Structures are given as C-alpha cells and as structure tokens.
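Listing 4. Sequential folding, example run.
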Amino acid sequence: MIYQLIEQILSHGGSVGLASPRIDVCIELHQRLSRDFTCQIPLLYHEGDSYFRSPLVVMTSHQLLRFKEAFDLLIIDEVDAFPFRDNDMLYFALENAKKINGNLLYLTATSTDKLDKQIKKHEIKRLFLPRRFHGHPLVIPKFFWKKTFYKKFIEQRKTGFPLLIFVAEIDFGQDFAKNLQEKFPKERIAFVASTTKSRKTIVEAFRKKQVLILITTSILERGVTFSSIDVFVINSEHPNFTKSALIQMAGRVGRDSKRPTGLVSFFHSGKSLAMCQAQKEIKKMNRLGGF
C-alpha cells in the first residue's frame, strides 16, 4: 500500500522514515522493505542496528528523538498503539524529525480521539480503505462460552492451520501454555510476551510453522502477518482487551490471499461491551467494503 509512495520520494532523491511504536512491527516492516528495495535500510531500536546514512530508515517511535528535519516523508504505522498513542513527547519528536515542508502519513485500523479531532478541524485528511488487497471481507469474530474452549481447540487442530491464542496477562499465559502442552504433548506450542528474551526467535519459528500454536499477549495484536492462521482470544471480556485491541487481534486472520478466511473465536465468561463493539465495527467495515 505504501510502496508506490516510498518509491516516488526515493526516486526524487528524498528521504523516508518509517516508524512504529511496536518492535515486532518494525522488524517485519524491515524484512519486507529490505527484500523489495535495493538500498540498505537501518533498523533502529534498543537492540537494533547502529545508524548509518540511508534514504530509507525503519525505527521504533522513540528513535524519532534522534532526528531533526531529516525526512521528506514520515510514515507512522499503528499510530494508536502504546506508547505512541496520545504521547505529546513522541508527537513532538515526530514533527521535529520531518523536514519543514515534509509530510506525515499515519497508518492505523483503529483511530484515536486525538486524530479524530484533527480530522474534524481539517488539520489532517482521512483516507479510508475498507477492503483488503485480496478483495475478501474481514473475518467476523464469533463468541463462545469459555467452557467450550477445548472442544473448539480440538476441532481447530484437525484443520492443521496454525493457531494464535491471545491472553490478557503474562502470568496466566505462561500457565495456560504449560497446561495446554501437558494436555496435548504432540503439539508444538510456545508462549511469547514483552518479557520473553527469545521473542524474535519464537515469532519467526511460528511464521515458519516450526511452532504451530503460539500463545501471546497483546504484543502481537497488530502489524504482524502470519500465513493462514486462526485466532482464539481467551477471556475476551477481560478489561485489558479494548475494542481496538480486539479488532486488531481479529485482523490477524485472513491476511493471506492463499487463505483469506479463517476462524476468529472469542472465549468468554460473559460478553463485554468491547467485544460487542469490536464485532459491530468489523461488520460496519465489511458493509463499507461492499459486502
């Protein structure tokens, strides 16, 4: 979606910065861009590359503080994610990092109050893309009582498709992964959270289908693409799971043209407002997309 714009800026000798609040998003963007553009691209985050001059830079949002009037175009992916969301310091860094006549492009599937106010004031312009590139509708979440989890889990495993399971808290996720592995010893199961030291390795193993069931917190709710997966959300009524978080989690399914469908299952002990709002919003997006 952004390739043509990046290519246009680079072909005229300009510089492009692509930033995101989430490390996992930056890593995936760097892999894609490095594959498809000929220039060397630094990846800047706390464990990333040392900076070297390049017309195209990928970085976490805090790395913007290192730059002043450096970019003709700055693209912020997942602008509504923590810690960028409504963070005045990072918004200042963003403005400071672009050239005086440079342009900003915000990317998100779930906007913020701050951005919505700017749109109403005509300070920024909204471009709305209700359809995915493959032309299929978004997968609508289905709600199930939590007690049905193992039944639905066994049904899903018979399909052979990889399964991404979201949990609301790290401690619960660690215990849940251990218990699931004990119940299903033949399955290749892993857990990943912000505290996981081997996080990058585990995520890559899931992408390569060396791990077929990945249990994770909200760190993988957005900006990452896995082929042909299904998504389960455990305790989907948990207050940590906001409407935007649930929309993003559901959005991990159906991203691949090889399998533009899939399962999005919310397991709960009682529906939350956020769950209902997320489902309603996804249905609205599909209507706007002509489905």
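-- end of first protein; second protein begins --
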Amino acid sequence: MQIPWFSNSKTSLISSSRPFVKMHGLRNDFVIVDGRGHPYHPSTKEIVHICDRHEGVGADEVLIVEPARTPNTTAFVRIINPDGREVEACGNATRCIGWLLLKEYNQKEIRIETLGGILTCSLAGEKQVSVEMGKVKTLWQDIPLSEKMDTLHLHIGAGPLNDPVGMNIGNPHAVFFVEDIDTIDLPKYGKTLQTHPLFPEEANIGVAQLLDPETLKLSVWERPGTLTTACGTGACVAVAAAHRRGLTHKKRMTVIMPAGSVVIELKDENIAVMTGPIEICYTGYLL
C-alpha cells in the first residue's frame, strides 16, 4: 500500500500534523510549536516522545507559544522539560522565542510571559537577543528552601562541592564556587544535589570559577537531571552570586559555558539582563 506523505492530498501524513521550528541557543535545543491559532496540549507521553533523540525530534525542551494572557505582552510561552514537567523559565529558550516573535511583529522590543514572569526581549545584533530576565531573588522562601537558612551560605554539599549560594530567577538555583572547574565531575554529584531535601522543587546546580573580575566559567546540572551545554538562567544567577560573595564588583560579565558565552549585566534592583546567540536548525511537522 502506498502511503502519501508530503503531498497536498487530504490523506497525506502532514495534512493533520502540526508544524514546528527547531532552534538552539548555545546547543540548548528546543522544539517550538505555535499554539495561538490552534491550541496545543500534548500529553506527558507525547512530550517524552518529541524530546527523545532516537525516536522523536530530539530536544532539551518543548516550547508552546500561546495567546497573551496579560495586557501589553506579545504571547504566553509554556516551557516543558523532556519528562513532561512544565517549568518557570529558560534563558536560552526565551532568546529563541524572542527572536521569532521580534521578527514576526517587526518590533524592536517585545514582552513575553512565562510561568516565571514577564520577560522583555530586544534584538542585539545578527541572531543576538537580549532578555531582561527579571529580578534575582535571594530570600529563602522565594527559592524556595524547605527551611529558613542564610541563602548566601547553604549548608549542603557533595564531594568537593560545598557552601553554595541559593537564588531564584524564575527557577531555583544553587551556585558552587570552585578554584578549578575542570577538575569537578558534576554528573557524579549533580543528581544528589538537585534532589536534596533542602529543595522542595529541586534545583539547578551550577559550578562556577571566577577567571577574572569580568569573566566566569560555568557548568550547570539542570532539572530534570542533565548536564547542559549552556544555561541562561544559570549564567544570570552565577554573576549575581559572585556579586553577593564579593568576588567581583563588575556589573557586566562574560559567562563562558561548554557551548559558548553569554553576557550578563546586573541592573538596579538586582535585575539581570542576558545577551546571547540563537540559531535556527530546521522546520518540520509533528505527526
């Protein structure tokens, strides 16, 4: 039996399928679906399948663009991890979505809403986007922690990693400072720290090394349990953590991650602005 596929017939595979765009920010990759005209509510099983790199498209997250829920915003974006869990924020994802919507609406600046809050995006060059990621929160109940504690010195550790800084910028983070990041086997300790009882919502685990007053080197173990090539929110909180610890007084820093660099600027009231690259991989259809 002949199976029609890329044809215009009503029986073709793509006639009832859903278009997507595959993008990445520093190799942190995403399947992006427009759910504004036709709502899209995939099940956990569908999300797992889409993100599977052998049986699906393959992605670190699925991003669903929905109609704006708040006045003076362009869209609401759902950010869904490979395990089907919806999360509050992702810096690399926001840059990718921001670029698409800035181009679509031919605007210099737009505001995107996520579970973590409203983020302002603007073009910063050829395939470069700046995102105002919001305020870096430092109160123990805002991270959140399971008990009251000084978030500048969390009493947890594993192996060579101890005494992290706890913060939240739409999602929870713990940042450990080390002398030599290349000697740290983060996958060995990442899961244990991510799921520590101190973090009722789990936490992203960052390991940072200050190279000079304007440069950090960073590696991040992300929820739900992966070593990522880049983490935008992790870069923001790493710079904020360096300031809180008094390791630097520079408001603008370059953060080097395995897949490349972003620039983080801390503004008044602890607002973090991230600037970094985006790339389009390809477009396709979810069957």
